[in-house]
Amino acid sequence: MKKIQFQIDINASAEKVYNTMLGLDHIETYEQWTAEFNPTSTYEGSWKKGSKIYFVGTDENGKRGGMVSEIADNVPFQFVSIRHYGILDGENEITEGPEVEKWAGWLENYSFHEHNGVTTVTTESDTTDEYLDYFNTTWPKALDKLKELSEK
C-alpha cells in the first residue's frame, strides 16, 4: 500500500470549500467534482462521524456499484477521514473476501486550512501500484473542478 497526496489552493473560505466538497448545501456540488472519477458518482448516507456512507455510481450497463465506507472523523471546515471497508455490488454489500481484502481499511483524508481567505485542501489516500497512474491523473482534475465550484 502507498499513500498519495494532492493539494490545491482555493480562493474561498474553508466553510464554503468543505460544504461544496461534501455537497452539504447541494449534493450536486459533490457529484460535479467527483464526476472526474465516475460520471454517475454520488453518495448515500451521512457525513457524521461514525456513520456508514455509500459512494456509488453506475457502470456502463447501468449496474449500481461502489464503496461501503465509514466516516472515521469529521471536524467541520477542518478535516474529514473516510475508512473504506467494503464494496457495493448492486444492492449487496460485500465486506469480506478476496475482492475486499486487498484494500479494506484504506483511508481517504481531507484537510482544510484557511489563511487570508484562501483554503488549502490536502487529500491523502491509500492506494496500490495498480491505481497509481489513474489517481495521479484523476485527482488533479477533480481538485481543479472543486476549485472552480468553490470559487463561484
TrEMBL record:
Note one Pfam family from the annotation: AHSA1
Which superkingdom does the taxonomy of this entry point to? Bacteria
List, for all copies, the residue spans of the domain called Activator of Hsp90 ATPase homologue 1/2-like C-terminal.
Answer: 11-150
What InterPro entries does the record point to?
ASHA1/2-like_C (IPR013538), START-like_dom_sf (IPR023393)
Q: Provide the family line.
A: Belongs to the AHA1 family.
The protein depicted here goes by the name: SRPBCC domain-containing protein
Q: Which organism is it from?
A: Flagellimonas hadalis
